[in-house]
Write a structure and sequence with these properties.
Layout (H helix, E strand, L loop, with lengths): L5 E5 L4 H12 L3 E6 L10 E4 L5 H11 L3 E4 L6 H6 L1 H22 L4 E5 L16 H20 L2 E7 L1 E3 L7 H13 L6 E6 L3 E6 H14 L5 E4 L4 E3 H9 L7 E6 L12 H5 L8 H14 L1
Parallel strand pairs: 1-2, 1-4, 2-3, 4-5, 5-6, 6-10, 7-9, 8-12
Antiparallel strand pairs: 9-11
Helix pairs in contact: 1-7, 2-4, 4-5, 6-10
Length: 298
């Protein structure tokens, strides 16, 4: 599976975006990275600067690049920020996606696109499952993508990733804990690792496995379909901290802000993705080790 072609990656300077640029370069794609401002971009990747909430800039970008594939990673992904500024989250996650897809419809209609949604989407049939503006913005993003695919017969696939982890700069819980442990190893902080709740469960998948999944969807994904990009196995924060303990010589104590048991975790399953030939390659422990090594080298 190595079809060379023009691939446009939005959000290319982010945690997943940088990994995606490296991966698709190695796979033989002609990669164009979309960025809002000057930032680190892997060598041999062409860079285009564009504000995705500006439909004129997006149209000019698509007319210039004429992509055969699009991996849409760009977005506002902070739940707290969505509470403070819900309109910006809607603009960046929902409206920008509509601008992008409309530009593709007009100037690159045969392009295959993967729109990356979120595990935090809510059920439109049950408004009670809407918990924050971020969830609204990502749910609308997916609805827009499916609508353009249906109304205009465009080749648009939706990915629904779980919590992505791995080496690189990230605001995820595993990266935050890893940074703290490395600071302990360097005797910069006390030997106490604080978490919100040890009972909290999440599905973690290595970002490099996720990027391989996105490639699979770009080649084999079916229009309008939503594919869960996930390990299919949840881990409690207690399991996370214990795995970290086995990866460091530091004997730290764990402090939990709350010991209240939470609602049962609803697991995601990569069944449809696996049916396309994808499978997880990087273990949870290996991911945490790579995160630690990343921060040890910084």
């Amino acid at each position: 599976m190595n079809p060379q072609g023009n691939l446009l990656i939005t959000g290319a300077t982010g945690f997943t975006g940088i990994h995606a640029c490296h991966h698709f370069l190695k796979r033989g794609f002609n990669v164009t990275a979309v960025a809002r401002k000057t930032a680190y971009i892997p060598k041999n990747v062409h860079v285009e600067y564009c504000e995705l909430t500006n439909k004129r800039e997006i149209k000019s970008l698509i007319q210039k690049v004429r992509p055969q594939y699009v991996l849409h990673l760009a977005g506002q992904n902070h739940v707290g920020q969505s509470w403070e500024d819900p309109l910006t989250s809607l603009e960046i996650n929902s409206l920008a996606t509509a601008y992008l897809l409309e530009a593709l419809r007009q100037d690159a209609p045969s392009c295959k696109s993967v729109i990356v949604g979120s595990a935090l989407q809510f059920d439109l049939k049950q408004l009670s499952t809407l918990s924050h503006p971020y969830s609204l913005s990502k749910t609308l993003q997916v609805l827009i993508a499916q609508s353009w695919a249906s109304l205009y017969h465009m080749d648009i696939v939706i990915a629904k990733p779980s919590n992505l982890i791995g080496p690189g700069l990230s605001n995820g819980v595993c990266s935050i804990l890893a940074q703290r442990i490395v600071e302990m190893e360097e005797n910069k902080v006390g030997k106490i690792l604080e978490v919100n709740n040890l009972y909290d469960r999440r599905d973690f998948l290595d970002v490099r496995d996720a990027v391989r999944a996105y490639e699979t969807l770009l080649i084999k994904g079916k229009p309008q379909e939503i594919y869960e990009v996930t390990s299919g196995k949840s881990k409690s924060l207690n399991e996370v901290t214990e795995t970290f303990k086995a990866l460091t010589a530091v004997d730290f104590k764990i402090k939990s802000k709350s010991n209240e048991k939470l609602e049962p975790f609803v697991e995601m399953k990569p069944i449809e993705l696996s049916n396309l030939g994808w499978e997880q390659e990087i273990s949870f422990s290996s991911s945490l080790k790579d995160i630690l090594d990343f921060y040890r080298q910084k």
